[in-house]
Amino acid sequence: LVSLEKWAEAWRTKNVDAYLACYDSSFKTAKFKTHDEWASYRKDRINEKSKISVKIVNPQIKLTGNKAEIKFVQQYSADAINSNSVKLIQMEKINNK
């Protein structure tokens, strides 16, 4: 849960370098062909907001070996956006991190 809180804090404080460091360099989404494309998009999206609030509510953790799945409600607000959504984050311990 410490890693998840660090991720949320980095996002909340708009510390883009710390936020991106929460993701492995191989991470990408279906919308972006490479990690660098995704990272550039996220950097722009975070920096354009005047203020960001991210809260993690009711986290449920499932551990399997070096992997963890965390399901939670994400309460997010930034500028005119307010949302509550269920998120599932998958984490994997790599090089003891």
Describe the structure.
By secondary structure, the protein is α+β, with helices and mostly antiparallel strands. It is built from three helices and three strands, in the order H-H-H-E-E-E. It has helices spanning 2-12, 16-21, 35-47, and strands spanning 52-64, 67-78, 81-92. The protein has a three-stranded antiparallel beta sheet, covered by helices on one side. Strand 2 (67-78) and strand 3 form a beta hairpin. The chain is globular and about 40 Å long. The two termini are 13 Å apart.
Q: Key features?
A:
97 residues, alpha+beta, three-stranded antiparallel sheet, 3 helices, 3 strands, globular
Can I get a quick summary?
This protein has three helices and three strands, in the order αααβββ.
Give the helices and strands as they follow along the chain: HHHEEE
Tally of helical segments: 3
End-to-end distance: 13 Å
Structural class: alpha+beta
**Broad shape:** globular
Write down how many β-strands occur, each being a DSSP E stretch of 2 or more residues: 3
Determine the strand fraction and express it as a percent band.
Answer: 35-45%
Q: Into which percent range does the helicity of residues fall?
A: 25-40%
With strands numbered from the N-terminus, the spatial order across the biggest sheet is: 1-2-3
**Kindly state the mean pLDDT as a whole number?**
93
Low-confidence stretches: none
- C-alpha-based Rg, rounded: 14 Å
The largest β sheet comes out as:
3 strands, antiparallel
